[in-house]
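Morning!

This is the sequence you dropped in the shared folder:
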Amino acid sequence: MWGRIEGLRVLGLGTPGGLRAELNGLVLSGAKTGTAGLLEHDYRAEGEELERAGERLALVDDDDQPIAVIEVTAVEVVPFGEVTWEFADSEGRGTARWNTGPTPTAAFGTAWDTPSTPPQRSSACPSAWSNLRSSRTRPR
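The structure's back. Tokens below.
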């Protein structure tokens, strides 16, 4: 189960350390407006429901302290092999510059931070779009 801060589910991007700092920086700059996970690994195994449009999440730092509130604007579940270039670009890591095929599976997959559970083309991939609601503040 995901942690909670003042009633909001916690969003801890990547793994603590350099990756989380990089991803949080992309969110705070406005470059990262999308994130994805694996349905089995990140939701069912954790006993969590998918995010829903309008839900607010507490974005946390390496110490699990809130640094921003993110509002989910849309969620869709697609097979990993059908993730669009538009969504991959919303991840904020310049993935669209690698656009050399019909889907971003190969390029997008190289950045996956769950090496023990590498995504397969058919893996269900919940993709959440979001907006930064407020930064550098505690959830209210």
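Headline: The mean pLDDT is 78.

More detail when I'm at my desk.
O.
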